[in-house]
Amino acid sequence: MRSLRNTSIPLFVLLVATYVLEVLPGGPYWRPHDVVETTYEAAKDALEFMKDWAIWMAGIQVATLGAVAALAKDGALTERQKSAAIPATILNTVGLLFTAWTLSSIPSLLLRMSGPCKELSTKVAGSCDFYELPFMDVDIAPRFAFFSIWQHWLWAAGLCAFLWLAYTSISTPARKP
Q1: Structural domain count, the chain
Q2: pTM as predicted
Q3: What pLDDT digit, counting tens, does each position of 15-52 carry?
Q4: Which domain holds residue 153?
Q5: 134 SS3 class
Q6: Does some domain include residue 113?
Q7: What sign does the dihedral 36-40-42-43 (CA atoms) show?
Q8: pLDDT tens-digit profile of 100-128?
């Protein structure tokens, strides 16, 4: 149990600190927007690609979590394998939450972009750049890019942790339960 606490607390602190730094005055939320001028149709197509990619990533994350559960069945993991299984589980679970947030924000983004793009807001006037839009239609919310970036990094880190678990499972004999 000690290794779970040692792994999850720093990850939680990192996520909270990143969010706080995002929305604090002077943070990336308040910086001038780097708007990419585009059309509604191009933005809609890009969101469709984003949706497909996020669904694919979620499938990999769920499969990874299932594989970790299968390997950990009946307590058959050694301490070395547990040190890889815990980060793989945490990273993939948190990454799956960010994937869900990304997918759940797509309808809101499409609705907010459905009118002429120049009427969106004063901050992103004349653009359909959904990465620069707030995650949801609230006063202080991270931009969609915040969730998209974390979704991708957590997916990659979770996959690397799982590959480390696979390597340790192959190179270390299993413990008898």
Answers
A1: 1
A2: 0.72
A3: 666 666 655 555 555 556 666 777 777 888 889 999 99
A4: 38-171
A5: strand
A6: yes
A7: positive
A8: 988 988 888 888 777 656 554 444 445 67
